[in-house]
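Q: what sequence does this backbone want?
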């Protein structure tokens, strides 16, 4: 009897799965390009529309022929669950490849962590965290990020000055604080994510950003960046993949104009 019931059970499971997939697909708006974003993740996203992810979203919306609307929520615990997964919006810009909380599109750029120093500093030529010149120097880093592990591996744990990873950036500005302290000399260097640091120092006459492309141990320093959609929304993912493929040059131009360091796909050097 168990064998006779199996086809019926399988058929029921398939129907439930199909219904669930249809339900997920139905969450997507076809009248708006609905973006989930942090209202104060400058220079990436901002409620005033000045972030480079806002500009990318506007470009994507134009290509789709859809107006862009936002669901604003501080990035951190619960961000995906309370925005994308709740059906309030349909895409997260700037999402690292490989996170299981979302279904990733193809990546539309690759970037890296790097070291910010004063241009006139004795550390200006440092391009890897194992450089002995960093010993004994106060170095800013966001706690919990990959370079914090590499700094510890390089024996620099006592030299690290940590800032929190998940904060409400409407009231706290860890990256801005670190850059100010490097500029003043209170920190000798700060190790930061390129798409955050690069745009903020693009026009700064005192500071420079050097990508960390030569690390030999610890977590990798470069990551491929995608758009994130809900798991199961494969047709939506394919539509965005096609858009990225057709418009890669324009996407690169928006990122470069913002000051984002763009790498080749393998994190070996700056993209031509």
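A:
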């Amino acid at each position: 009897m168990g064998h006779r019931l199996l086809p019926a059970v399988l058929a029921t499971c398939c129907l439930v799965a199909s219904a669930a997939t249809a339900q997920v697909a139905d969450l997507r708006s076809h009248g708006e390009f609905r973006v989930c974003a942090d209202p104060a993740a400058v220079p990436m996203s901002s409620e005033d529309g000045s972030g480079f992810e806002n500009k990318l979203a506007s470009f994507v919306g134009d290509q789709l022929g859809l107006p862009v609307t936002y669901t604003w929520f501080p990035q951190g615990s619960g961000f995906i669950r309370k925005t994308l997964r709740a059906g309030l919006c349909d895409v997260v810009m700037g999402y690292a490849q490989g996170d299981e909380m979302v279904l990733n599109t193809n990546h539309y750029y690759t970037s890296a962590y790097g070291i910010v120093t004063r241009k006139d500093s004795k550390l200006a030529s440092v391009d890897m965290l194992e450089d002995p010149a960093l010993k004994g120097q106060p170095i800013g880093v966001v706690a919990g990020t990959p370079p914090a592990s590499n700094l510890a591996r390089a024996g620099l744990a006592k030299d690290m000055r940590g800032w929190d990873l998940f904060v409400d950036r409407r009231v706290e500005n860890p990256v801005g604080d670190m850059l100010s302290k490097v500029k003043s000399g209170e920190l000798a260097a700060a190790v930061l994510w390129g798409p955050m640091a690069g745009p903020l120092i693009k026009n700064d006459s005192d500071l420079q950003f050097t990508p960390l492309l030569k690390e030999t141990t610890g977590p990798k320093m470069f990551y491929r960046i995608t758009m994130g959609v809900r798991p199961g929304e494969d047709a939506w993912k394919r539509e965005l993949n096609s858009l990225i493929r057709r418009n890669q040059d324009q996407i690169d131009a928006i990122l470069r104009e913002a000051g984002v360091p763009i790498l080749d796909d393998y994190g070996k050097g700056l993209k031509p």
